[in-house]
Amino acid sequence: MRALLAELPDGYFVEEAPRGVLAVHADVARQLHELGYGPESDGDVRRSDVVGRAPLFECELGGARYLVRRFRHGGLLRRLTGRRFLDAERPFRELCLSDSLLRLGIPTPRVVAARARSAGFGWQLEVITPRLEGTIDLGTWLGRLRRDEAPATSRSTVLEAFGDLVRRMHLHGLLHADLQPNNVLVDESGLAASGVPRLHVLDLDRSAFAEISSRERRAQLVRLYRHVARTEAKHGACLTRADFARFLRGYDPERSRWKADWRGVREHHGRRRLWHGLGRVIERLLADPRDESRHRILVPADPSAKGGGRL
To answer: For labeling, which of 16, 52, 218, 228 is most exposed (least CB within 10 Å)?
Structure first.
């Protein structure tokens, strides 16, 4: 881990304690210390009304709100290991990756602090990022679209902007480990405007820069399509072929490979659908019905929303 910590971006420094390691940006270091947050202590960190795959926490630093995301295994592995991880470097790699994306002009919340805390067998990991006010994730937006609650003018611009975001990530060699609408935020102010809405990519854990082959690039598109198709099957159809074409127009503005990509995605999805469906059935049978990680909400709950689910 020391080699990675020695290569942190400018502005960060490391605090070490017998049972924890904290990397923190100088802009928030004093406020975190006053809050009581350190390599081994949480201080005044409280439960947030924003949750993701698992509940999120938050704190206030310098008058602004920040989210604390505690890493948790997904799928069946969470039943065995809970919040313990063997790889203590993961939050620090995410910190470095967020800094690299911002330097490339790809919007993402900056990781201002990353921590690995010893938990007996393994580590408990977390990162702290600014809370992006006035945004919703694309899963929420698609749910509104399904319920006819989203501005009709946003349909084309958001989907094309989403395609462009994925294009730029692939252009710079980023393989996102969990590419799906819930991991992309859109500024609500841009949904009703005539300009291009601003999107932010989230949850960079296990993502990495690499030499992306055509096969890997298309595999990411397959996974994204599979997530959307699964939600469509569960909550009802929302997107049309024209909508997928809008996404591909943003992903392939030169219009040189979108037909091959679309054909490959559909064929691959059809071949693997049975196996993925079987895996979901097994996971549901073994899941704890009280497990909050089954619910994915990236904005405060809207009590007026009815039906329709989210992507």
So the answer is: 16
| CATH architecture group of domain 135-291 | Orthogonal Bundle (1.10)
Q: What is the pLDDT of residues 113-158, one digit of tens each?
A: 999 999 988 999 999 999 999 999 999 999 999 999 988 778 999 9
Chain centroid to Cα 49, Å, comes to 17
Average pLDDT, the chain: 85
Tell me the CB-side half-sphere exposure of residue 203, using CA atoms within 13 A: 20
pTM for this one?
0.85
